[in-house]
Amino acid sequence: MIQSQIADAQTVLGDEEVALCQRVFDQISSVRRITTDTEREDLAQRVIHSYQHGVKDEGALLRLLI
Length: 66
Prior knowledge:
The protein is 74% helix and 0% strand. The protein is built from four helices and no strands. The two termini are 17 Å apart.
């Protein structure tokens, strides 16, 4: 899910950055029990947007988005 959203992002993310965003996405999806494609796409966009706007710490992203 994160990969498809990154293709649309203005800033290219490196492999480590993608992996971090994917971990955050997976953890939040599990905690919030996200199941629909719409919810998944929204979360992926929010993770990437937050990361690109300076929230680079994995724990901070989790706290912000859970």
